[in-house]
Amino acid sequence: MTEGSYLLKRIRARCIDDAGCWVWQGTCQKGVMPMINVGGSIVSVRRVVFTELNGPVKPGHEITVSCETARCVRCVEEVTYAERRRRMAVKRNTDSYPRLIPPHAKLSAEKAREIRASDEPTAVLAERYGVSKASIGYVKIGKTWAPPSPWDGLGARS
Fold it and tell me: In terms of C-beta distances under 8 Å and separation of at least 24 residues, what long-range contacts does 111-120 make, across chains too?
């Protein structure tokens, strides 16, 4: 039995088969990145699976999951850094953004524009909008409710 087949069997033993996905049941970094101890080093399970099945990862590439199952270690693919960032930007713009603004938020994009355009003191604006002076300051410097950039959505170019 080769080391590769031993590692794959060890990984498979810690997974649940779910419609073609190997859903990792072991340790995860930040709750979603499956990790395993191989020879005293903690490494990505996805990288181990990819390497055992396809060979080493090319320079300038990284391993990512190609399905929507967060802990899947079987549906892995090799992509360039630029491609992965492009996919993340598309997902962020179409999926995540609406969840970033809680339904109970006191400010909106329109109110933020008014705050940035105003010359009134921070305390007056905070009282008017029902938020803290720090919140007004963050809006004015663009730390929160930043105005859209003309470069948003362009992403990296290959």
Answer: 112/139, 112/144, 112/145, 112/147, 113/147, 115/139, 115/140, 115/145, 116/140, 116/147
SS3 content of the chain, % helix, strand, coil (to 5): 40, 20, 40
Determine the Cα–Cα distance for residues 44 and 51; give it in Å rounded to an integer: 11
Task: Determine which helix (DSSP H) or strand (DSSP E) holds 38, and give its type and residue range.
Answer: strand 33-38
Provide CB contacts within 8 A for 127, sequence distance 6+.
none
What pTM was computed for the model? 0.54
pLDDT in tens, 77-122: 999 988 888 888 777 665 444 445 566 789 988 999 999 999 999 9
Nearest CA to 145 out of 21, 20, 155, 125 is that of 125
- CA 68 to chain CA centroid, Å, is 13
Q: Average pLDDT, stretch 146-155?
A: 74
Residue 4 to residue 53: CA distance in whole angstroms = 9
Domain ranges within the chain, ordered by starting residue? 6-95, 100-147
Residue 57 CB contacts under 8 Å (≥ 6 apart), including other chains: 47, 50, 51, 63, 78
Between β-strands 28-29 and 21-24, what pairing exists: parallel, antiparallel or unpaired? unpaired
Question: If you search the block for the tokens 């181990």, which residue do you land on?
Answer: 48
